Amino acid sequence: MPKYTIAVLVRNEFGVLNRVTSMFRRRQFNISSLTVSETESDKYSRITVTYNGDPDFHHQIINQLYKLADVCKVKELDGDGAISCELMLIKVKNEHATRDDIRTAAEAFKAEIVDYTLDSIIMRITGDSRRIDDFIALMNSFTILEICRTGVVSLERGKNTIITEEE
Amino acid sequence: MILSGADIIVKTLIEQGVDTVFGYPGGQIIDVYDSLYKYRDEINHILTAHEQGAVHAADGYARTTGKTGVVISTSGPGATNLVTGIATAHLDSVPVVAICGNVNSKQLGTDSFQEIDITGITLPITKHNYIVGNVEDLADTIREAFRLAKSGRPGPVLIDVPKDIQIAFCNYEPEAPYPEPEKRISKKIESAMECISDSKRPYIYFGGGAVSSDAQEEILKLAELIDAPIGCSLMGLSAIPTNHPRFLGMQGMHGKYASSMAMHNSDCIIALGVRFSDRATGNKNKFATTANIIHVDVDGAEFSKTVKPAYSLRGDVKLTVKKMLTLLNKQERPDWSEEIKKFRQTEFENRDTRDGLTPYNILNLLNTYTKDSTPIVTDVGQHQMWTAQYAEFRSPRRFVSSGGLGTMGFGMGASIGAQMGTGERTVLVTGDGSFKMSLNELSTAVSNKTPIVILIFNNGVLGMVRQWQTFFYEKHYSCTTLEQQTDFIAVAKAFGADGVKVSSLDELTKAFDKAFSANGPFVIDCLTDKDELVLPMMPPDGSMSDIIVKVGEENA
Known about the structure:
The structure holds two protein chains of two kinds. By secondary structure, chain A is an alpha+beta fold. Chain A has two domains: 3-76, ACT domain (Alpha-Beta Plaits), CATH 3.30.70; 83-153, ACT-like. Chain A, domain 2 (Alpha-Beta Plaits, 2-Layer Sandwich). Chain A has four helices and nine strands; from the N terminus they run E-H-E-E-H-E-E-H-E-E-H-E-E. In chain A, the strands form two sheets. In chain A, strands 5, 6, 7, 8 and 9 form a five-stranded antiparallel sheet that branches. Chain A is elongated, with a radius of gyration of 19 Å. In chain B, the strands form four sheets. In chain B, strands 3-2-4-5-7-6 form a six-stranded parallel sheet, with helices on both faces.
């Protein structure tokens, strides 16, 4: 099933994230990731949602979002036309036998070691979701202690923004 | 002018054209009630027996008038008592604005007395809701609520107003009511017209959206132009006159045979303001498999939600059909008309011809008493389906019923609202189960001398559930035999209303004579048989080939 990324511009009102997630829950919409953040204007917040589904499901999500009074604009961000990335912190066990392999892997993925103790290493990596999934797969050869990832944020390439009309 | 928050609430309601509100006072809304007292010459408040009655009344008022209904309640239990009524309005897309009091803003979140998170509770059952944080935002919040309630697909909006906002002061400047929101039509209408022209068996199928967009005239013209039969969902009833020669009636689980057959055999369904609920379609995979569906709806989220249309035309039903009329040529379909005639003939041959106090005979008699303008309200159950099948509706917005949520206890409140909205003597068809859920509102009808003919189909059982137990649960009548000794006439009299018990058609005639000239609510306790069935019946998740037309003749 195709993967979709949409950006949702919402009024920066108390409880707006709850309204969006509550709608997903009650309509049984299964999503992969959701991030929310401040924007260039204090009037709006921006929610980025990714999910897999057929085109009908995709249209349902967009149409149901537009029914929420706080939703101002929904825009689909496709893989080629947008820059998408997420950030992950991953903590693995630091052992003599695997230490060099972990460092080599981190170097290859341009993951930065941000915390280092005799027992553990924390690495920070940014990139598209696929790259982060790959890094986790690689780290599975060692002992992963903890993972925290942000979910996807995404901006359209070029001068268009979520509020400008496509030319 | 400088006003208190409570005054601003009432002044803004008046400004938005509200002349009647329904509600119930309490500790955290007492300031608004003080303002209602102050402005009592400009706005009328109807006190009900229970907040649920008030919200159903606001709903009935809105459904019959097309205006936005308003209900006011206090915090906590007052607010939670609105929940079923708000959900009822939500599922049937009825514009209602609910205003609740709440505790002081500073006390919110501390579980104080009669505090409840009503915006959290009603989030999934409102179009939108608000908790007002500043008195300066109050008037604009109410204005936006009125706009939202009626724009696009209508629905309920709730505003929660903490006590400190009601007593704070700020400047208030009256504004004009929101103009009717601009209505749009799809740019793709033309592309769908070939589908109609090429069709051999078109069927026009309308729902609640046709009622709210007032599309009666356009639908009838379209049917004439393309020589097509018309059917509707439960929510569509009364949008066009029942006795119109092209109208086959309601389709669906308990739909008319001819209407359901026409839809099932159609090759092009022109669906106007409908949402293809499971009660209307049965099993989606077997539903109208040969038809292309042209789906017209103001709510884009309805397209492909349950069935996949060939064409999705987002926009107002009335304007869309009007546009269609300019794009289509006169068409004739004698073969299809002949088939429809046969469906009708089969339906006629299977009609209920029994004598006595049968549902058909009762409603047929009622039809001789109702005027074109009489609102007919129902509760939920067998009586609701019989009313949908047999009652005559001659003008739009005159059938009021809880279709989506199926709320037993809806009828008493809704009929009070319908009567007050239209000024017409109103008929409530109810059952002994439903009536018992809201008969407290008899007191409201008595206090206001509200002329309502309350016709109770009293069969001593919860008939609709019993019918399912008969068909699908081996006649295990678990908790559906009421076996209660309630004397509804004594109850009516205790409330100050009048009433009579009837057990024959003659007695019913006399009862109607009295009821239709009574100066207030009149209860007719009509004793009916507990084994009456609503037929035809398409079993849940079934299809037209599973339809039960007569008992003992399944798959007829």
